[in-house]
Every structure is written in C-alpha cells, then in structure tokens.
Inverse folding.
C-alpha cells in the first residue's frame, strides 16, 4: 500500500522560531531545515503547496527548471512509488488531483478564512473544511482516521502560530488580514479596527515572538499525539507558508513586505518514527 501523507503547515511560523522552540516530536521526524517560501502570505503560498511544490533551498548556479524537476521527483519517495515525476502532475499541476488518481482520499482542514472551501484550493479534495476556531489543531486531530481501504492525504493549515499566537490579552489591538477586513467590511467600526492602531513597541514585539515559540511547542505536543494515530507507512511534512516580522527594519507581520524573515521558513519531513 502507498504511504499515507500528512502535510502540516504552521501558518506564519518563522524558521528561527522553530530553531528556538523545544520540539522533541518534530525532531523525531527529521532534521530542521532552513528553506524559503514562494510567497509572502497565506493564500498564494498554499496554491504553490497544492501544485506539489515545497519551500525551496534557494540554490545557486542551477537552472530553475532543473530545481522544479528535482522537486517533483521527490514525490516518489514521499508516497512510496517507484517512479513519479513532473509529467505526472501535468496538465493540472495539482497535488490532490495526482493523489486522487493514485487512489488517495484527500482531506483538508484549514484555519485561515482566505483558504475557505469556496476558493479554488478546494478543487480535487474529497473532504475540505474551514475550522470554526482558527487555533484548533486539537480539533483537527479528531477528524484524522486511516481506514484500510485507501491511502490518505491530509492537508492541515494550523492557525496557532498566526497572530495573535493564541494570546487572549484584551489589550492587544485587532489587526486584520485580508479575511478580517472582508469579515468586517460592513461594520461601522472598520476604520477604528484597522486604522487607529499604533505600532507595537519593541517589548511587545519580543513578547509576541516568544509567544510564537511557545505555540510551536504546543503544536509539537499535539504532533506527538498525531504520530501515535498514524500507521508506520505515513510520511509527514511540517513547514510554514511564510515567516513573520517582529519589528525588524520597522515591519510587523507579513504580506506586502519584502524581507528575508517573511520568506524564511522551517522545513522537516520524513517517515513517521
């Protein structure tokens, strides 16, 4: 039977956040790598994931076309097939389409409203759901099962590492991304929500980064529970869709920002230990 495949995307998680976190379960999967996202915010980054592309190593002295061919060739190892290459992904360039053709049952659980089931991201999935709480990796675990009849693909977008990083502090201002702006577009208080917030102090920035580190440690604890549920023929990939700025060069967050820390992401993959 082919490998089950679980793709875990810690939304907004920086590489150095993972480096600083205590992650014994993640460490059991494989070594932590420093990689680079193709995009600086959630939606376009997930589109590249669902094209079958992982964060890249930023190689030099090579042609980009060769990097793509090598990347697609890695799917044979991940899925447990003798051969799988770029031509298997054409013309749709869709990972879930390829997996369904190979007999997989494809499931997505997402935290960010910009990834909701009405977007094109839902194409070729058998089961796709936006969680009601954007910090609910624990709830996602309840939906993960491995029947004997078909291999499974799970795409899990985790919101715990996204602002406000599981903080419930009432003093934190409401900072909306695209989905937040759209959600409150008809609110009379929209300008107050998004336009009157003063920039965070350096102390708050440091506190928020430390909280993201603690969120990774929380996720790692649940990752241990997930691995106990997985059959031995399960390949796991843990990464991020993009990074985050915590005050560097006057930036906070991600999206319309060009900075190394927005594109630098953690990457771990391997068979379930």
């Amino acid at each position: 039977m082919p490998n089950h495949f679980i793709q875990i995307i810690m939304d907004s998680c920086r590489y150095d956040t993972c480096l600083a976190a205590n992650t014994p379960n993640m460490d059991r999967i494989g070594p932590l790598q420093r990689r680079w996202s193709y995009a600086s915010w959630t939606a376009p980054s997930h589109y590249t994931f669902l094209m079958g592309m992982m964060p890249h190593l930023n190689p030099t002295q090579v042609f980009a076309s060769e990097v793509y061919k090598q990347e697609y060739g890695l799917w044979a190892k991940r899925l447990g097939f003798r051969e799988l290459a770029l031509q298997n992904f054409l013309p749709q360039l869709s990972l879930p389409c390829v997996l369904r053709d190979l007999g997989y049952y494809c499931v997505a659980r997402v935290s960010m409203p910009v990834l909701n089931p009405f977007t094109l991201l839902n194409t070729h999935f058998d089961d796709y759901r936006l969680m009601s709480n954007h910090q609910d990796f624990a709830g996602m675990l309840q939906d993960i099962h491995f029947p004997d009849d078909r291999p499974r693909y799970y795409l899990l977008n985790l919101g715990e590492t996204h602002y406000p990083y599981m903080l419930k502090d009432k003093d934190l201002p409401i900072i909306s991304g695209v989905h937040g702006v759209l959600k409150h577009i008809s609110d009379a208080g929209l300008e107050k929500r998004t336009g009157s917030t003063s920039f965070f102090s350096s102390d708050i920035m440091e506190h928020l980064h430390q909280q993201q580190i603690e969120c990774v440690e929380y996720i790692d604890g649940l990752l241990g529970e997930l691995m106990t549920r997985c059959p031995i023929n399960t390949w796991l990939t843990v990464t991020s869709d993009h990074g985050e700025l915590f005050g560097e060069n006057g930036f906070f967050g991600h999206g319309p920002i060009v900075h190394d820390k927005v594109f630098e992401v953690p990457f771990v993959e391997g068979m379930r230990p």
